[in-house]
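User: Can you recover a sequence for this backbone? Please restate the input before giving your answer.

Assistant: Of course. Working from this structure:
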């Protein structure tokens, strides 16, 4: 998968060469159809490399789309969500844009944030009456933003603070265009406010402004229409938290504004910032993600840095001390995407594995437990569903005897970056009926248990003169499988003898040679 979105991708976004997947993404941009990680308030949604949607964590209102309201500490598939191009997540709701352009939503809907014209929660995906969507942002609040491919922004859901940007405080349960916005390339919905990134590198904001969320030097209860954030240009990515915002400039620096009670702005203070200030000590950054009251940044070297509220270990440095400036999250490397939730954090590595830390009462760390962690820990989640590649799918046999043989095959390859050894399993049958993985699994006989990093197997205890059919399946740690071409082996037959009697002495006659051999005993 592609790890970076770098300056080249930024240029492509600015000139409309590829769709923008920013917004609620709370993560590095991901090409259409590629792995993508997004976070809601208490849950995660993942898009696999094959276009399937999976989720884990809070599920009280059906935000995981598995047809239940049971919280999940292990990933479950969102029913019906295949061939998906991008995903988004809100407080307890989730969204998907399919490759055919249709938009789907599921989960909590008390403010109409699903956009299906109702305020009824949906445990399974429902289609929305909006198309030509490039990306969605469910954000941390109860409203939703959509960026259309024509650069317009649409909004629905809660609007008490003007977060829909239509000049009113009236909520909506269906999408409506935000007036006055055009040529936008990314959107991000915060707690009770919204921000958008324009193709010229400027940032625009609307909604709640009591903590300076608008970034224009003012404070107010409701900014009902978009205003430009002061002093920001050359911005390539944005992310909105509960009451603070992050902006990434093309030079790799990070800027922040809004609430700063616990250091989420990252300027070394706890002073509220009503205009953007530069985050201390960060350079060469590729992606940013604003959580509830903390922040994440992904650097070009694949490391993750965090700051802000840390009562549950969401900063990931092994402590629960609030951090007013960035510190490195422990033990993470080769990270491709980041995604911060309310009180938790997550990272997707280049091998497709998800690592989580912080609050875990809803199972959002994906570890199979509900135990918090103050350092990043590998979960049970894998978003790479590409099967291992075979340089050669041929199995060969040698040293065939009456009761043994040697099987050999070329080892498969995978891009697991050394984090997941490939596993091989050999199957045996007396019939030529093991053609597919499914048939092998049900009909084959396992000769050996899983063995990692092997390319041969010595077969023993075979019967002489018998035809055998062998197949090999290789599986990576994510569970993706590839089958080799079946190989037939016929063991050497032991010559047959007939026993005759001449007088009282038994003799053995071998084949057509009719040579009599005296049998001892």
């Amino acid at each position: 998968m592609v790890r970076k979105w770098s300056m080249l991708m930024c240029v492509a976004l600015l000139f409309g060469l590829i769709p923008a997947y920013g917004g609620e993404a709370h993560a590095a941009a991901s090409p259409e159809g590629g792995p993508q990680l997004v976070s809601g308030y208490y849950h995660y949604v993942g898009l696999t490399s094959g276009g399937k949607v999976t989720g884990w964590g809070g599920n009280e209102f059906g935000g995981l789309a598995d047809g239940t309201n049971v919280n999940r500490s292990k990933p479950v598939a969102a029913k019906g969500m295949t061939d998906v191009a991008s995903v988004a997540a809100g407080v307890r709701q989730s969204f998907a844009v399919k490759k055919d352009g249709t938009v789907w939503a599921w989960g909590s809907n008390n403010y109409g944030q699903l956009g299906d014209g109702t305020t009824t929660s949906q445990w399974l995906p429902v289609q929305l009456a909006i198309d030509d969507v490039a990306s969605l942002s469910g954000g941390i609040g109860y409203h939703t933003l959509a960026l259309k491919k024509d650069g317009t922004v649409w909004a629905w859901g809660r609007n008490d603070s003007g977060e829909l940007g239509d000049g009113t405080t009236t909520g909506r349960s269906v999408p409506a265009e935000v007036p006055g916005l055009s040529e936008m390339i990314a959107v991000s919905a915060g707690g009770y406010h919204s921000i958008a990134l324009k193709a010229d590198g400027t940032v625009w904001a609307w909604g709640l402004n009591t903590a300076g969320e608008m970034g224009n030097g003012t404070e107010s209860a409701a900014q009902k229409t978009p205003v430009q954030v002061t002093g920001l240009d050359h911005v390539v990515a944005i992310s909105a938290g509960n009451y603070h915002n992050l902006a990434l400039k093309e030079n790799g620096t990070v800027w922040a504004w809004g609430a700063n009670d616990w250091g989420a702005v990252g300027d070394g203070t706890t002073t509220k910032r009503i205009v953007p200030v530069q985050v201390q000590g960060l350079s060469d950054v590729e992606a940013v993600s604003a959580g509830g009251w903390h922040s994440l940044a992904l650097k070009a070297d694949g490391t993750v840095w965090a700051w802000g509220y840390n009562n549950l270990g969401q900063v990931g440095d092994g402590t629960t001390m609030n951090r007013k400036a960035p510190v490195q999250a422990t033990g993470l490397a080769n990270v491709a995407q980041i995604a911060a939730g309310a009180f938790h954090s997550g990272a997707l590595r280049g091998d497709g594995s998800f690592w989580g830390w912080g609050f875990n009462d809803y199972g959002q760390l994906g570890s199979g437990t509900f135990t918090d962690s103050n350092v990043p820990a590998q979960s049970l989640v894998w978003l790479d569903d590409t099967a291992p590649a075979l340089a050669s799918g041929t199995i060969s046999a040698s040293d065939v005897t009456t009761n043994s043989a040697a099987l050999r095959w070329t080892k498969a390859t995978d891009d697991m970056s050394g984090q997941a050894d490939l596993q091989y399993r050999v199957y045996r049958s007396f019939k030529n009926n093991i053609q597919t993985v499914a048939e092998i699994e049900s009909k084959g006989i396992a000769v050996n248990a899983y063995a990692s990093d092997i390319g041969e197997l010595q077969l023993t205890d075979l019967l002489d003169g018998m035809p055998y059919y062998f197949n090999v399946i290789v599986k990576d740690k994510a569970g993706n499988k590839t089958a080799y071409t079946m190989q037939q082996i016929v063991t050497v037959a032991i010559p047959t003898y007939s026993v005759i009697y001449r007088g009282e002495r038994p003799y053995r006659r071998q084949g057509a040679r009719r040579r009599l051999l005296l049998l001892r005993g």
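That completes the design. Confidence is low (pLDDT under 50) at residues 1-31, 440-451, 511-521.
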